[in-house]
Amino acid sequence: MMAARAVDSPMTPFAQATRGRLQAQVPLAGLTSWRAGGPADWLFQPADLDDLVAALRDHATHAPQMPVTFLGLGSNVLIRDGGLDGLVVHLSGVLNERRRLEGDRLLLGAGLACAQAARFGAREGLVGAEFLAGIPGTVGGALRMNAGAWGGEIWPLVEAVSTVDARGELHTRTPADYTIGYRSVHGPEAEWFTGCVLQLAAGDPDVGTRRIRELLRERSAKQPLGLPSCGSVFRNPEGDHAARLVEAAGLKGLRHGAAEISPKHANFITHDGSARAADIEWLLRHAQDEVQRQFGVHLEPEVRVLGRPGATHEASEGTA
Ligand SMILES: Cc1cc2nc3c(=O)[nH]c(=O)nc-3n(C[C@H](O)[C@H](O)[C@H](O)COP(=O)(O)OP(=O)(O)OC[C@H]3O[C@@H](n4cnc5c(N)ncnc54)[C@H](O)[C@@H]3O)c2cc1C
């Protein structure tokens, strides 16, 4: 990991050098699964947890007004074309510890990919986390979103989480500290996940590994996985499916710029790599408006739309 140079200006996030990597004006498109959107003012990848803690402490005194956003694998965010204000802390690939604990439990770092967590659990002969294999995010992102699939969700497995706050203080919390719902988690403000302990059950490693293979096969049959996307754009409304409603509204296959409502799965918006975030957001809002107008159902985005519109955003709003 490259050491960052010491930076000491009110416009920088830290006064001291870190052991991690700090870069200015970094394009984020390549760090998101939608492969679209603008740059981060500052992108920081800590070397490890101590480095993250030291950096946040420094930031809290040096640039407390500068916003902080954590990013995992960027598989549930739409970063607008104008980019993200302030400091983006990129955890994917760091804080990626995985360890078996006594009592059929797993300790997982927030930067670990969900797929690695699922495979590690299965190899250890622990069952219950196979559904994580097809979720292309980090454990931290899964905790933030209460990610789930095939009837499983991460939070029912959580015994405890570790977090860090904006002052660099570490906390250990339990599910009782959070309000947890379908793809929604609310807890202490300005606090981010650094890891968790999951309670699983003892099982057969071969059964777990087979189950992972089956789930991945089923997923690739139903979803357009080869193209940039964020997975499901909308949460499923109570008793219905967002994909069904978008399709019934006649929007499957609709294009705007280079973005398209997937002909394979109407709750996916995909593109060939050349769409602007504004094109994707236009389709998202259009689908929302049409489903509301035709069926009176409000579709709530599952994806988190972040950042500043690009210079051409207004113009694209008007085009069909
Ligand atoms: C092809 C495809 C299929 C998908 N299938 C599913 C599915 O079956 N089920 C499902 O639930 N989701 C699915 N998703 C969505 C996505 O993978 C999940 O929401 C995932 O949990 C996001 O993790 P991430 O690391 O990519 O988070 P990011 O997209 O990086 O971030 C998502 C949100 O979490 C916040 N965040 C990230 N890391 C942390 C942290 N350490 N602490 C606090 N906040 C943090 C971010 O600020 C942001 O608000 C799919 C996505 C794609 C592209």
Automatic annotation (TrEMBL):
It comes from the Bacteria. Its cofactor is FAD. Residues 35-218 form the FAD-binding PCMH-type domain. It catalyses: UDP-N-acetyl-alpha-D-muramate + NADP(+) = UDP-N-acetyl-3-O-(1-carboxyvinyl)-alpha-D-glucosamine + NADPH + H(+). Keywords: Cell cycle, Cell division, Cell shape, Cell wall biogenesis/degradation, Cytoplasm, FAD, Flavoprotein, NADP, Oxidoreductase, Peptidoglycan synthesis. Gene3D superfamilies: 3.30.465.10, UDP-N-acetylenolpyruvoylglucosamine reductase, C-terminal domain, Uridine Diphospho-n-acetylenolpyruvylglucosamine Reductase, domain 2. Its EC number is 1.3.1.98. Pathway: Cell wall biogenesis; peptidoglycan biosynthesis. It is found in: Cytoplasm. InterPro entries: FAD-bd_PCMH, FAD-bd_PCMH-like_sf, FAD-bd_PCMH_sub1, FAD-bd_PCMH_sub2, MurB, MurB_C, MurB_C_sf, Oxid_FAD_bind_N. It is an enzyme of class 1 (oxidoreductase). One of its GO terms (molecular function) is FAD binding. Coiled coil: none annotated. GO terms for cellular component: cytosol. GO terms for biological process: cell division; cell wall organization; peptidoglycan biosynthetic process; regulation of cell shape. Its main location: cytoplasm. It holds the Pfam family MurB_C. The active site is at R183, S232 (proton donor), E302. Belongs to the MurB family. Cell wall formation. This is UDP-N-acetylenolpyruvoylglucosamine reductase. It comes from Thioalkalivibrio versutus. The lineage of its organism: Bacteria, Pseudomonadati, Pseudomonadota, Gammaproteobacteria, Chromatiales. The gene is murB.
